[in-house]
Specification:
The chain is an alpha/beta fold. The protein has 3 domains: 3-147, Rossmann fold (3-Layer(aba) Sandwich); 152-214, Helicase, Ruva Protein, domain 3; 219-363, Up-down Bundle (Zinc Finger, Delta Prime, domain 3), CATH 1.20.272. Helix content is 56%, strand content 10%. It has a 6-stranded parallel beta sheet with strand order 1-8-2-5-4-3, with helices on both faces. The chain has a two-stranded antiparallel ribbon with strand order 6-7. The radius of gyration is 26 Å and the shape is elongated. The two termini are 49 Å apart.
Amino acid sequence: MPIPYSKFASGSRTESLAKVYLFEGKEDVQKLEGLTKLTSQLIDEGFADFDLETLEGQGVTASRLLTAANVPPFASKKRVVVVRRANAIPIAEQDSIASKLHEIPDSAVVVLMLPAPEMKDGQAKASSKVSADLSKAVNKVGVVVTFASLRAEEAGGIIAKKIAASGKRIDAVTLRKLVDRVGSDLSILKTEAQKLIDYAGDNASITVKDVEFVTEQKPEELIWKLLDSVGSRNTSAALRLLKDLLQMGGSVDSEAPRLLAMILRQLRLIWQVKVLADMGQSLIHPSDEAMEALPANNNVAAFCARASFQVQKLQSQARNFTLAELERCFEYAARADLTMKGVEGEIEDPAVILEMLVINLCRRRPAQNK
């Protein structure tokens, strides 16, 4: 049974050490952190050149791996053999390794490292994984450790410690701004945090203005602002934000459908917030009855459970709309979608279709709450 990295990191690895580990999942920075923690306990300082061997997956065979593992440790507790990009090991060799994992001596620990998977249609590509036989074999004689994507709060906490270690301060609002803009991928977050530390110079604190200057706005952030402008009927601001969004990506033909989908996604989240509010339910811990009233996909409660700092933003957005107004929004968006697909209407330019959508949303008259 795979275990999460949090359990692996908190356990005593010297007391219940496995012969084989398979590190898999999306968070590559934590994989390296986990490997460092493991090797630091097993390899005596100054003897890594003798007792730690790193192999590249594409060149690994079962014979090569066992030969490396059978070399006795020179001066450390264990000999550690790390295989990077284990998914690149030829499939026939992976299956051969699977049949021979039990032959790894007690004096060695083998760590099979998988990079963050390449995704297609929401699923990890088969080439990003090891063979089924090898995965089963590791589960039988060793441990599979999963490194899942971090929640925004978890990533923010790690980055806050990095910033504090540099001697700088960052408050909760600024930290949320940073994660909002950059996302929760630690490799990217750490790079951007270092930029902020360097940019702050002699200043003791990193500010929101620093984050806004150093990092780039994500489309999601502009979508929030766009919907704020729509909610306040500020047509000129909404059109300006739409223009910025269209210029952030590739061609207008490819960006326009994506932006329409993002607008629809936010509107659906806002609609769910209104539904929960009418039921007297909390966004954080809605009842089972309330959950049944919400869609399974793009579920606002699940979204807020992963990113609780978004609750205030969603509630603020929801105050800009009534349920009746949201129904009109969906009608306008559906019409824009059909026009963009050439099903109805005569406008062919996707940018103009989105501009007309924004104008319609901003010009609608306030309706009474349902």
